[in-house]
UniProtKB/TrEMBL annotation:
The gene is murA. Cell wall formation. Adds enolpyruvyl to UDP-N-acetylglucosamine. Phosphoenolpyruvate binds at residues 22-23. This is UDP-N-acetylglucosamine 1-carboxyvinyltransferase. Its EC number is 2.5.1.7. It comes from Humidesulfovibrio mexicanus. Pathway: Cell wall biogenesis; peptidoglycan biosynthesis. UDP-N-acetyl-alpha-D-glucosamine binds at residues 91, 120-124, 304, 326.
Amino acid sequence: MDKLIIEGGVPLKGTITVSGSKNAALPILTACLLAKGPVRLTNVPRLRDINTTLKLLNILGCETTFEGDTVTAEVKGLKAEAPYDLVKTMRASVLCLGPLLGLLGEAKVALPGGCAIGARPVDLHLKALERMGARFMLDSGYITGICGSLIGARIMFDFPTVGGTENLLMAASVAKGCTILENCAREPEVVDLANFLNAMGARIRGAGSSVIEVEGVRELKGCEYRVMPDRIEAGTYLVAGAITDGELRLLDCPVDDLDALITKLREMNVSVEAQTDGSVLVRRNGPLLGVDVTTQPHPGFPTDMQAQLMALMCVAEGSGSIQEKIFENRFMHVSELARMGARITLKDRTAMVRGVDRLVGAPVMASDLRASASLVLAGLAAQGVTEVARIYHLDRGYERMEEKLSAVGARIRREKE
């Protein structure tokens, strides 16, 4: 198991290229199960979750290769079972339910694992697929689903679930008739999946809004597609520039998808400006100021940026609050930030943050993917040496983070624990 050693206090200066989006690539890779013919995907990040998904696709009968940032995939003989050994590490594996039911009329998928940040039940997926004619059983840790064929239906989600919206988009694309999805997730990654499905011949309208209409087609064909850049990785590096009082230029930064974060950064006295060459420049305008934040479904403030912004608030003047409304157990990084001198008080699902003059390096342990990023950011700003353990979480969502940070001046290295 690896750890990161960070000697903080160095302003970061230089250019970072944002990688392809993990949260867009995972459902897009899963949607390759629907294609008759080869699919070629570019701008795919090299991450643990991507490798896990490729292994899963291979087991399900979709042959894949991964060279550079390009994945090629082609179904050779679809199989219906997603085994526990792979699914246990990654919640996104449940996304294969929709494609398998849509094409085979059956699916057996192990209950998924992933970050321990609170309940993310798959019941919203199952209830929606039942409206389309599927029936499910839970036995020995597996979800087994069967249907004659999926039939279009009008479906209202109880909550704008990202995974549920994505699963239903894939299922409805090959179902009989028209499906109308209401109270959909509006995240850019959902739009990217819809655009990919349309490139394969699907008929999807309204992605990015709360109501999506899908007219089922008999088959989808292979295509070539570029995965969108990762808005959460981009947001993390925007915070890295601000927390170190540096000046970073981000290439391939999806600035239009970061409105809520950029608004809060500007309130904190951080300049985030698009440049004429298409890059985005981040630097401080003056002393950092505390802000109040509430996480919300898109287009609200993303829960995946909550931990990173908290690290920045720890070194801001005054106080601020973060209210977490998406996941009930996403403050596990608070105790680790406190080890570095942060002043944070928790009450229910709200964190009150009072800024300190500086953080102090310490051994800390990552509890989930975004918590890992927050601890790295805190270490970049801290006085002394910070050791971040259990960074396998970080490797699930950030491509070569220590290399990208080293290239802009960070004193950071990877070591074996």
